[in-house]
């Protein structure tokens, strides 16, 4: 016995059907999967959007690694200052300042990419709502 045993037939104009086929192709899903996921409210993303999000994920992983490294450096300097009563050398502090400035630039670039990605998102509006009838 089939799990999906209900068949639905829908009539569309040529333009509606063409738009559906474009969105199905962009999603890299089958027509059935695309429609079911749309009905269930799933966020359907195109290949390019998924690639961009994967790129952002990699950038954040790298930024996170750099941040952990800077935090370790600061912690080591604090231990030296506390244990020996010595203040880190000016060159060490300047290098750390420069690393933090570069980290801020990377964070800003990632933030801009995220904002751009969010601005491309479109909310699917339900068809046939009371206001449209």
Give a quick precis of the structure:
The chain is built from four helices and no strands. The protein is mainly alpha-helical and 133 residues long.
Question: Keywords, please?
Answer:
133 residues, mainly alpha, 4 helices, 68% helix, disordered C terminus
- Uncertain ranges: 123-133
End-to-end CA span:
39 Å
Q: How many strand units?
A: 0
Main sheet record: none
Write the element-wise H/E pattern from the N-terminal end onward. HHHH
Helix fraction bin: 55-70%
Beta-strand content bin: under 5%
Mean pLDDT: 76
In words, what does this structure look like?
- The chain has 133 residues and is mainly alpha-helical.
- 68% of the residues lie in helices and 0% in strands.
- It contains four helices and no strands.
- The chain has helices at residues 14-27, 31-39, 47-84, 90-119.
- The protein is elongated.
- The two termini are 39 Å apart.
- The model is unreliable at 123-133 (pLDDT under 50).
